[in-house]
# Entry
Amino acid sequence: MEIKEIANYLLSHCFIMGSCEETREKYYYAINHMDELRRVFAPLGYTPILHPSPLKVLMLVNEYPGTQVRLLKYESILLLILRALYLQKRERLTSDGDQVLVTVEEIQQEYQKMNLPQRLDQRKLEELLRTLRAYNLARPIDRLDHLQAQIEIFPTVVLALPDNVLKASVEETRKKLIEYEMGEEPADD
# Structure
């Protein structure tokens, strides 16, 4: 493994997790080569930030405007739902190594509470999850063709939507939800 492989992976996926078998080797290589990784990213304005146990996540941050990932409306809504479910389930787990798993039914229930005009069917959920999986936020464990199908939520959902970002956008979200309830559907950003 080389540092350029890790750098390219971080640029494409934003996060590397030590708790996920698929990325564990990259995670440990990266944390053992943090100085070199910082040197690679510094000229570009990026900073690799390590969140050790219990999260075991390495994330790549760039503070320049326009460099953050921009999710579509329903991708953002699903991310909010997954974050809320992650925090609920995480409290109940006994050890830090436990996976946080949710079912399609749990996601559907949270989605329906929002009273949105678009239905979250299997095809739409699979489409939204493809994007979230690309950024190491969640992944389907099963085929999503039944309500008990499971989805693993990674701890990165908390880092992707930190509390300060959520608080800053509460008012905007309330306004948009009112528009949705009135039958108006603003265009995706």
Q: What stands out?
A: The radius of gyration is 17 Å. The longest strand covers residues 46-51. The beta strands are 15-17, 46-51, 57-62, 100-103, 138-140, 150-153.
